[in-house]
Amino acid sequence: MRPIQKSKKLADVCYDIRGPVLEKAKQMEDEGHKIIKLNIGNLAVFGFDAPDEIVQDMIRNMPNAAGYTDSKGMFAPRKAIMHYTQEKKISGVTIEDIYIGNGASELIVMGMNALLNTGDEVLVPAPDYPLWTAAVSLSGGKPVHYVCDEESGWLPDIDDIKKRITPNTKAIVVINPNNPTGALYPVELLQQIVEVARQHHLIVFADEIYDKTLYDGEKHTSIASLAEDVLFITLNGLSKNYRSCGYRSGWMVVSGDKKPAKDYIEGLNMLASMRLCANAPGQYAIQTALGGYQSIDDLVGPGGRLLKQRDLAHKLLSDIPGVSCVKPKSALYMFPKLDPKIYPIKDDQQFAYELLAEERVLIVQGTGFNWIAPDHFRVVFLPNSDDLTEAIGRIARFLEGYRKRHAIAA
């Protein structure tokens, strides 16, 4: 029988957060090895439970969740999202501007599918959350990566953004708060990005899924609140702020200058209808989550578990010779750098394989986030303090061996 090949559309698509190294980890688990997983922001498996009022609301409403909903979502949760946009000072949002999806991930792909023709370009940060790059490629577009500058706390380089704009550029992706770096963008920088979008007639796709996961009293500004003459597509959801990853409940908000986007919005409506609707049980969680007690504040505030684990992970990583790490202001991740003079890594996926094989610790290599060099990796700081100490201790031991081997080779 002739081999059945995957679609050529997948040639430039990758998602290494759940890629080959994870497959190797699963194989090792099947063989009886215990793996410490620092690879994915799946809060529930680390004991971060969804707020009880969300769980109870879904249980109570389950008898009403068997039918299809409106293709954009139920009225009550969309109304709650509309009120949330008002709290974030995003003006002019109506119920019809809001789409509920099976997580923000589904809506990212939908937003790109509705927009891009073959060869259209989208500016995506490097490093990025790799679904953005994959969604652009899968939609026939070309992801063009602009650099975020580690020396300035991983903030986007405006001059680099400007250099990468061509007549084919249709949009720019802004991930703020940032995954994988934990950076939080100041208002002045966001205003500069808006001005670039304004001058070049770009759509701004704003990934704000971590907008409540903030440390040290930091405040988040929605970029869509800064202008009404630019088209914004803002994405958010319950997965991270409300520890509800598996409920697959996210939303997309269209705001700003919608008049020129009538045809694009028709495309979004068409794709929303084609998937019939988002899952109904997850929709029932939204109104309660947004209107209820914001328990995330307890986790990120003084004495909070996430804050403690961020500080611990940052100290432990920074204490390793040849490792530096910008302290994250937000989100659940760190993106430490390995000094290439001390760790001359040529293939960082192989580096992740070797760490897994020797120390049973699972990370994601930096190039999995479309970073430009094999000198970074991402870790989540979700395991409890004891497990985090153990995991980073194993990383330190592995790196010590790596230094010795390289010193001998040199």
Summarize the structure.
This protein has about 400 residues and is an alpha/beta fold. It is about 40% helix and about 15% strand. Helix 3 runs parallel beside helix 9, helix 4 packs parallel to helix 5 and helix 4 packs across helix 8.
Secondary structure tally, helices: 13
Mean pLDDT reading: 95
**Global Rg:** 21 Å
For this structure, the quaternary state is: single chain
Overall SS class: alpha/beta
- Helicity level: 25-40%
Q: List low-pLDDT spans.
A: none
Major β-sheet profile: 8 strands, mixed
> How far from one another are the termini?
51 Å
Taken from the alpha-carbon principal axes, the silhouette is globular
Element string (H = helix, E = strand): HEHHEHEHEEHEHEEEHHHHEEEHEEEH
The strands making up the biggest β-sheet line up spatially as: 2-9-8-7-6-3-4-5
Question: What portion of residues belong to β-strands?
Answer: 15-25%
Q: Would you report the number of β strands?
A: 15
Architecture blueprint of SSEs:
Layout: H1 20-30, E1 36-37, H2 52-61, H3 75-87, E2 98-101, H4 103-115, E3 121-126, H5 131-138, E4 142-149, E5 155-156, H6 158-163, E6 169-175, H7 187-200, E7 203-207, E8 231-237, E9 250-256, H8 262-274, H9 280-291, H10 296-300, H11 305-318, E10 323-324, E11 333-334, E12 337-338, H12 348-359, E13 361-362, E14 364-365, E15 377-380, H13 385-409
Parallel strand pairs: 1-13, 3-4, 3-6, 6-7, 7-8
Antiparallel strand pairs: 2-9, 4-5, 8-9, 10-12, 11-15, 14-15
